[in-house]
Amino acid sequence: MTSYQDLGRTYPIARDRDDFAAAVASSVVLSVDLFAQTTAPDYWNWSESAHRAVVESLLSAEDTPLSRATVQLLAHPENGAYHHHLQNCVKDALAAEPNSLPDRLAEAVWAAERVSRLRVHVGSGWQAAGKGAALDELKGIRHTRQPTEGPFEAAIVIPFRGRDPQSARIRNLLAVLSALNLQTCARHRYRTVVVEADSEPLWRSVVAPACDTYIFAPAAGRFSKAWATNVGVVQGAAEAEAICVLDADILVDDDFVERALERFDVPGTQAHWPFQDMLFLDEKSSEAAIHARSLEHGSSVNHEPMRGVYMRRPPGGCIWLRNGLFRRIGGMDERFEGWGGEDQDFEWRVDRYGALDRHADPIVHLNHPRSPYRADDGTPFFQEISFCSWPCDSDIGNLHKYSDRS
């Protein structure tokens, strides 16, 4: 066995005991936890073999504290106590002189960390993570409406569809709108625009009072985030200098708008992602985050007690850019229908024409049932479109695009 110092020189991940132990436990949970794997199915598929190699190394030394803790966590990946116990066993093995890690474990962990875009996070509040938030409570929040006339600097456009009456999607949207109405930025400087793209305006009565501009965009087929976004910009944000495309499940802190507008004061700034790694919360932690942010009016969501999966450098979720750049590239590619692809395509084109910066603000993704991302024949929806082929002079944001086809 090598010493801890030698291990750290060979494998950078081993230089920090806590981080190394967290990476080991993350691989164990990822290998069996469906929630963790489906946070980003493609990202899981690309790194699956590397994570499983970590587990194989842990189990190779039979009847040791490490192997027993691994078996325990594999059987109950949602159990935070078992998660922390395995991490402590890893740190104990590192502290031994020479260390008592199984052969090739450090090599396997470093291989997984080099390729993986996912890292499981279990904080101190894993047992309950606080109170939940009921949909009826969110419906009862009263918001101060802004005047529909007059200048404003930014528009936050949120494309949305939520067909299930008890869906977490409408709960999430109301929480997001509540957070956007609790900003430190002067409220007259920005507008919130929600575009409900569906066969009928199911949530108009609930959503319209919570945002500045509600737009119903008639569309019965696959949900098109790209088209709904373009509708929101063209129909509800034409005057804004800055545009934010925000998913209806991204919970932001109360300095979110203020920081974004300050960044546009820097010469040459055309667009930015406000985050690097996004924390995808599980259901209990989502409920707790919504309660803390929307019902208790907390200024942000504390990541530390929450359970979820960090997605490293994800596309989508939230992007800010100048309205002129949005128009110059023809907005989002409206040919993308169904989940997946439209964000990556859009951000590649934004970066080509305007340069896309990335910052490290705190941001969380709220849990909801996953939408299908493949056609009946198994082909991902995004493979139907050639990336970066959307003409810059495309006619975008036609509110009646889909109803005109019928």
Task: Describe the model.
With 406 residues, the protein is α/β, with parallel strands linked by helices. The protein has two domains: 4-116, no CATH class; 135-405, Spore Coat Polysaccharide Biosynthesis Protein SpsA, Chain A (Alpha-Beta Complex), CATH 3.90.550. It has 15 helices and twelve strands. It has helices spanning 4-10, 17-30, 34-37, 41-60, 65-75, 80-95, 105-115, 135-139, 168-180, 204-207, 225-236, 256-263, 283-295, 323-328, 342-354, and strands at 118-122, 154-160, 190-198, 213-218, 242-246, 250-251, 271-273, 277-281, 307-312, 318-322, 356-358, 364-365. The strands form two sheets. It has a seven-stranded mixed beta sheet with strand order 4-3-2-5-10-7-11, with helices on both faces. β2, α9 and β3 form a beta-alpha-beta unit. α2 (17-30) crosses α6 and α5 runs antiparallel to α6 (80-95). The chain starts with a helix and ends in a 41-residue tail after the last strand. The mean pLDDT is 90.
- State the major sheet: 7 strands, mixed
Q: What ranges have pLDDT less than 50 throughout 5 or more consecutive residues?
A: none
- Give the proportion of residues in helices: 25-40%
Q: Spatial order of the strands in the main sheet?
A: 4-3-2-5-10-7-11
Strand content: 5-15%
Mean pLDDT comes to 90
Global outline? elongated
The chain-level structural class is alpha/beta
Specify Rg, calculated over alpha carbons.
23 Å
Q: Which CATH class of the largest domain applies here?
A: Alpha Beta
Could you give the distance between the termini?
Answer: 70 Å
Q: Any idea what the CATH architecture of the largest domain is?
A: Alpha-Beta Complex
Q: Give the tally of β-strands.
A: 12
Q: What is the CATH third-level topology name of the largest domain?
A: Spore Coat Polysaccharide Biosynthesis Protein SpsA, Chain A
Order of helices and strands: HHHHHHHEHEHEHEHEEHEEHEEHHEE
Continuous helix count: 15
Number of domains: 2
Any idea what the CATH superfamily of the largest domain is called? Spore Coat Polysaccharide Biosynthesis Protein SpsA, Chain A
